[in-house]
Amino acid sequence: MNLDINQKLDELLSMKYETETVEFKEAKDNFSFDDLGKYFSALSNEANLHNEKYAWLVFGVEDKKHSIVGTNYRNDDKSLLALKEEMGKQTTGNLTFIEIYKCFRKNKNNEEKRILVFQIPAAPCGMPVAFKRMYYGRDGEALVGLSIEKIERIRAQNVTNDWSAQIIPNATIEHLSKEAILLARKMYAEKNPHLTSDIERWSDSTFLNNARLTREGKITNTTILLLGKPESADLIIPALSQITWILKDRDGVVRDYEHFYCPFIVSAEKVQAKIRNLTYRYMTGDSIFPKETLQYDPYIIREALNNAIAHQDYSKAGRITVQEHEDDYLIFCNCGDFIPGSIENVLKAEYSASNYRNPFLATAMVNLNMIDTVGSGILKMFLAQKKRCFPLPDYDFSNHEVRMKLYGKLLDINYTKRLLNEDLPLSEVFELDRKQKKEFNSHRNDTVKEQVKVNTVEKSSEKSSQKSSQKSDLKSDLKSSLKSDLKILEMIRNNPYITIPELCEQTVMSRSGIKKVLGKLKNKNLIRRIGPDKGGHWEIIEK
Prior knowledge:
By secondary structure, this protein is of the alpha+beta class. It has helices spanning 5-13, 33-49, 77-88, 148-160, 178-191, 196-201, 204-210, 221-227, 264-274, 298-311, 343-347, 359-367, 377-388, 413-421, 426-463, 470-494, 500-507, 511-523, and strands at 22-25, 54-59, 99-106, 112-121, 130-131, 134-139, 142-145, 214-215, 218-219, 242-248, 254-261, 279-282, 291-294, 320-325, 329-335, 394-396, 401-407, 527-530, 537-540.
């Protein structure tokens, strides 16, 4: 917006007293970050409840008489700018300041003083804003915990503005796909086997109403999303009914892609069919035989994709994406803030979701057996990965999107062994998983740095080769070569089923470089290949 901040500051200073959406603080030298976060949460929530677009927090002004005192809070621009990111990391949906304005005013002694004006966005419709998982509000001028009544009042907004339940005036059953309706009948019957004979007798209109896909016989946005013909997508513009599957190589380069449109009940199955789900083998050391499993649990793929459909913020006019990465992970992405606030909240045994972005759509998808009982899907996906002894899913809520990363390989065999041998609670597995990923990423970063260093030395050596003796070069090459040989030998010992692409990733060496080392190890009778290139494994030759 085009805001004259000096005019706005004059307006704020002219107020006789603070309100629920305006706060003044002296903050002459410093101000606690935790206190700032509490005020951010409180002012944001109160702005929502008072139908204000923004709330305002002013530093450098006395709160009673509004006299100018000035502030030295974060006096350098870099530190002040970083505050936006710092706040976003601690709030629901990564919400942060719209802007932090720097102004100057003269005090009663005619001295020019620095003033900071924080522009705070109102809490999004249906989503109260927490700071460090706690909700705050105002009671007059006082900072208090946000009352249950206020929390429920904000959350109720989401239900009264349910986009997915809106009726499309000119839409008829002719805009729906017959194939999709037949599939919906089949899925509804699987969910409700006691109604099978009734479902067969129902007309399409009766079925759609009973399955909560229409409202009083009228076509809704949900009906078009799940059952509409591809050409019927125009009826829900500006919302976008599109799922895009993308295949990326290890460098993040797109190798293939395909777009899928409504009806989502059909398209979701087609997207799942695009994802390659290979047999994954690994050794745990307790047997000479490898364990075999699919890279991805089909249930998790289905639940993750359908969750993205159910919780997409269709007002953003964005698409749902499924990225398949050749280094063995999937990413499911949908538009919209994560309403529960954090994954930790959802994984608590006592967690019970009280509101959803698209309640009408979510209910219809539950009725069609597309998603589990609303609110339990994420927990079940985590438990499924735990049961498989695989890394837990990762969630990223930045940029007003929800991204779920699903791993199709092991990161640390010790993590897997513990899960195989101990019945650990999910909370403990969550911490073990966090630790293994931290160590895995640290190891990979160290490997990258080491390879960069080696490459730099090699380039430097190449430039000075005419000046250096052949003996010196040979010594350096042998040392580097021996280090690579031992590293790869150790990786094979830990995982005989490790593939060449996995060796490339974990060593940051080229495919040809890996093959050269493997050939050398075979020639020295240190390893041998058992079985074919695909499906076989390595064996260490003990001497």
